[in-house]
């Protein structure tokens, strides 16, 4: 019985330690450190023992993966909090706006985090899965998608939106898209993708969205 009561506390402590390390990593990146910061510097910044980051994450790459996952969780949480009106098409565009705004809150941090994910590793990470989940959340019940394309849309659209968003962010990281152009670039790409699946009543709106962007 006592062990059962202690388990939630141990889990809370584990989660707290992970968040402390991730917060410290963000502070290092915000101060201009690259993703090559040392684990010793990270432990010192977090105020924990040298082994703690290794014990909880295993590697620096895993820490960057965790920072990416936490960012995506924040995007999803804000989307749920805002509960934007409209159909799946409106929700995708709202998710893009929310996601870009969060990226721009700490651009140096997020450029370092997302940029580090492009490095090949022996084990593929969960970034694609997490990204797909974000856009699946936005698509919801696929309202606004034509009945004849819905099955196909359910199979491919979340992935394609994730690819579009990641592509825009990659150009932003490379300096080929400025901060003020990131949202517009995503909206054009997403609207173009959605145009092939949208119900006839929404296609005119999407074309206007592309023109306005």
From TrEMBL:
InterPro entries: Homeodomain-like_sf, HTH-type_TetR-like_transc_reg, HTH_TetR. Residues 38-57 bind DNA. Residues 15-75 form the HTH tetR-type domain. The keyword Transcription applies. It comes from the Bacteria. The keyword Transcription regulation applies. Pfam families: TetR_N. Keywords: DNA-binding, Transcription, Transcription regulation. This is Helix-turn-helix domain-containing protein. It comes from Labrys neptuniae.
